[in-house]
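Recap for those who missed Tuesday's class. We walked through two folding examples back to back. For each one, the amino acid string is listed first and its predicted structure tokens come directly after. Nothing is annotated here on purpose, so try labeling regions yourself before you check the end of the notes.
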Amino acid sequence: MGILGRYILFEILKLLVPIWFVLAFLIFILEWIGRMFTIKASAGTLLMLYAYKLPSFLQLVYPIAVLFSCLAVYGAMNRHREIVAAQSLGSQRRALWLPAVIAITLTSIPYLWLTNELSPWGMRKHYETYDREVLSKPSRFAQIRQEKIWYRNQDVLYNVRYFDPGKNELYDVTIYTFDANFQIAQTIAAERATWNGLRWVLTNATLALTDKRLDYPLTLTYKTRETTLIEEPHNLKRIEFNAETMGQSELRRAIERHRALGINTVEWEVIFQSRFSFFLISFIFLFLAFPRALRFRRGSGAAADSIFVAVVCLVYWLLFNFGISLGNVGKISPVIAAWGPSMIFMVGIYFYLRSRNLRSESE
């Protein structure tokens, strides 16, 4: 990348990062002020409550910041005839838009970290603060059902009379294993199960084999017996599935686990896919902003560009939410629901730019 490319890259980064944070801060201020008169809590509590949502706001406005910064940088270069000078010296259009792609790629590192880690953590802290400080209740993530619990793990069904999450101990445990015809093949009953860091250790356990392939039922007793049929303690503790508070890797594992249990995970799969597809819109906005910023204009065009950004963002947001809604109710697959709006928007931009090129050639 030559001098021109480095110049464009640094100019975009100098604008992109501040615009990104300013837009997120504006949303934070608006939501904080709007909630100040509806939530019965101190101003400091509300400030902390919505400060935890700042990573989510940063995630939301990132494509808009990309569109604004690219329009501003290329528009300024066009007005000052820097674009004409660069092209007269032999620079191709690729040399002009490639630095913007590099800028988006560089800023995608913190963006993806925000999406996968910081934003879910912030949403979890937001809900915990809301439960404790506003509702004056224990955190919804700390409420663990401890008595008379049934669990299912693929072809294993187990019942726990009492779960002590502090000691990682289960009391009065019964484990049922089923054969291919969903007939009970094995039953294990134990007074207590203790987690040793790798597997559960059953105490005073009784094993009853009732498999039809046996001539008669077989019963065995054990003072202690290890088993991996029961899920790990941290999986037993989760009673409320909230995709907003889970990172991508944690969300993927949870979807796989719930799907294996026969639970409908469509809404969670849509969220998982949409976190990645939403990033694609940044590149789409770049290719939309580039030809607009390079067209000839006499004035600054800041007002027109602001209206253009608002209209584009509104159209995409409506299209994106429409796709997500269809995916949540199962009308279309989660992949199509998350990626379809971006693909449709990209096709629409392609024909829009093509029509402008044809119009300019005819003139």
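Example two. Treat it independently of the first, because the proteins are unrelated.
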Amino acid sequence: MASTDISNFNATIFSSNLRRNLEAKGGKMRPYVTMAEGDLYREDGLYPFIKGGGLPKKITQRLPESPISSEEYSNRRISRADYQDGTAIDRQDLDRMQVDPWADKTNILGDKFRRLEDLIIQSAALGDALGGDTGSTTVNFTAGNIIGVGLGAEAGFTNAGFTYEKLTEVLKDFQKDHIDLSSEKVCITVSAEQIYDILQQDKFINKDYINQSIMTNGFGSIQNYMGVDWIITEVLPYMNTALDGFNIDLDTDVVTDATGSGNGTWADTDGNDVRACIAMVKSGVMFETKPDMITRVAELQANSFRPYAYAEMGLGAVRLEEEKVRAIPCDQSPVAA
């Protein structure tokens, strides 16, 4: 059959909606962080917290002096930034497609902002926080809160992916830091590679160890395993080469190729293929919006009055307490020593 030029082809009506191409889904972490409260129409905000320890003092005499305990007061600062995006529709495209793409194109706008939410939350969870009385003191991510990349490695390997040993180490560390896991649920963010690691290990999949087998009940059965909420997403950062920090710079470490399916995800800037999985409890990270997405629909005079959808959102996040966040380095391609 001879080829046909279809550059001016007008399709007959074949569908009532568009088929979306492959795209990373985001917005998965908002339910697992603390949402900021108060006046959200400002760029910077200070959120106070208090720590206090010790025990009440024993009374050993009549008419004792009134005790005064000492607590630690501090603040964490969120610096919010505004982000915007827009999409237009050309009438020539409508002629060719014979479908109305308006809802689908605006849904893509929403997906972009939801991916951005996850990027900002993860960057705040693992990055520097601003604390102190005025929110101007830099608080680094604690090196001791990075789980060993080799924990649970197979014989002959220095590094490991996600292992049962790393999971139990995280849960032990949280409890040693006095986090009550009966009232605060641990959330662990992993990618598909870490789920693959889990499917290779007996203690995760064997019914001798667990009530439900992931092998027979699917990925959904991993939820609440060991009392943990699991977020499975490809929006997940990478470790640096030294494995003591993270590629989480929103300006340099994000894939921006608009034609690729990984657009808007973290890039493996150092190329070592070690993912930084994140374990935290809800009160460990605060997320702030302004107040949520602002949208406008108008006609663009400069573009022959084509319809145009605009979206804007102010976003910011901060790690509130170092003890409530852990990083789990997982080598996605470990090499034998």
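Answers for example two:
Confidence is low (pLDDT under 50) at residues 9-16.
The chain has six helices and 15 strands.
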